[in-house]
């Protein structure tokens, strides 16, 4: 096999040291990297190979220890020999010159396999893709050429299309791997297995039995030092356009028949295309936004910022399976806890065998797919309280916990799975250009409504709370309420 080179642009950045190098090291320890694989870091600042190796070691060690694994200096030293550094500005022809020479020397006349990972600001993608095209980086001499890109994929539909166009000027669509680390999470992948490898739930997975669906992605941390970046995007771009709409597609899609990239992505796009698109003028019927108290004092945030740090949106999927089943999706920063789940709220029984006592209502079945932390599945159902006098009902959980069930190792990190998939050419968990554009079509009117000059100020919520009251009102007006954030 021709040699594999993984080229990380943005090698001195946060993502590289916190996620990419630890994931590659872990893959190496598991024997999953080819023997001859090398990793070349590229950024503008000068570094020697040794300085680069030393710069990424502490974060890798920290990542291993935080996963409950031991640190093996010998394994690191062996892995570090795979690491190289080439300084250069990837947006200029001269900047790529040294990298081109490095690759030519490594691959000789037979060529090699290359994975380009763009861990740089997305504003640079068009320029970098143009330089790649001029240097012939897309030509598959001796092996594949693939490019991995990180979100955000544009700022709205127009810029999202422009990013896709600039990438297509150099690469074929099947060479482009758009990463959404949510799809690399074990628990998100398990949504499909849960639905399609079990017979029990799929017959119920429709409007006849499901009243509504809730998806929550709560973060405990505030924006911290990322205020400048965050204020330009806000929660709707940062969490909804990609991560959360992707989770909705996994919950709502039809069985793809086979687990292949195109089959899966064809089904996901059908869900996105079936979503009703709000008009800007009545978007506030379907959205509630908040901003945590103190956000405007964060570094890099303007004192009059209207950027939402919390949003709850109501989506409708206009097809036979999901007719009249709202999907309520919420996400926010500085909330009570870090907690993500998909909650399927089933309809109540059409007739009650035992009438509820006056003033009490039945808690109808719900199923929680807990994505993080304490990953697991909980099915909430009614039981009879054991007692001799009378018949009382009480809701209880049937629970499955990943960490109890699979004790051998920590859940794999999303980046490990996604990097290995990109190396293997397995694109199932990466997003296609049409998914990105359709997701912007859905989000653009909602975002435009919150950014309009006459848009109301997002409601202030207390840090450490469950979000603003207006999010409760969004559900209350349809007689529903949010599940507790655990
Ligand atoms: N950090 C995260 O947790 C996270 C999460 C999700 C997505 N992302 C995405 O991942 C990407 C990287 O994020 P990050 O947080 O790692 O950013 P970062 O810490 O700001 O790092 C950016 C890197 O790009 C390099 N760079 C800038 N201009 C360059 C150029 N012209 N040529 C070559 N290298 C250049 C910088 O080094 P020099 O200044 O030395 O060139 C630096 O190594 C972004 O697309 C971001 O949106 C990050």
* Major sheet attributes: 9 strands, mixed
Q: Report the uncertain regions.
A: none
**What class, by secondary structure content?**
alpha/beta
Radius of gyration: 24 Å
Top CATH class of the largest domain: Alpha Beta
CATH fold field value of the largest domain: Dihydrodipicolinate Reductase, domain 2
CATH superfamily of the largest domain: Dihydrodipicolinate Reductase, domain 2
Task: Identify the overall geometry.
Answer: globular
Bound molecules: NADP nicotinamide-adenine-dinucleotide phosphate
Helix content: 25-40%
DSSP strand count: 15
Q: Helical region count?
A: 13
**What gap, in angstroms, lies between the N and C termini?**
49 Å
What's the number of domains?
2
Please name the defining characteristics of this protein.
single chain; 486 residues; alpha/beta; Rossmann fold; Dihydrodipicolinate Reductase, domain 2; 2 domains; nine-stranded mixed sheet; six-stranded parallel sheet; 36% helix; globular; binds NADP nicotinamide-adenine-dinucleotide phosphate
Mind sketching the topology for me?
Elements: E1 4-9, H1 14-29, E2 38-43, H2 49-66, H3 73-80, E3 83-87, H4 93-107, E4 113-118, H5 125-135, E5 145-149, H6 157-168, E6 176-178, H7 186-196, E7 210-218, H8 227-252, H9 261-274, E8 287-292, E9 310-315, E10 327-332, E11 339-346, E12 366-372, E13 376-384, E14 393-401, H10 402-405, H11 414-424, H12 433-451, E15 459-461, H13 469-476
Parallel strand pairs: 1-2, 1-4, 2-3, 4-5, 5-6, 7-10, 8-15
Antiparallel strand pairs: 7-11, 8-9, 9-10, 11-12, 12-13, 13-14
Bound molecules: NADP nicotinamide-adenine-dinucleotide phosphate.
NADP nicotinamide-adenine-dinucleotide phosphate (NAP) binds next to helix 1 and strand 2.
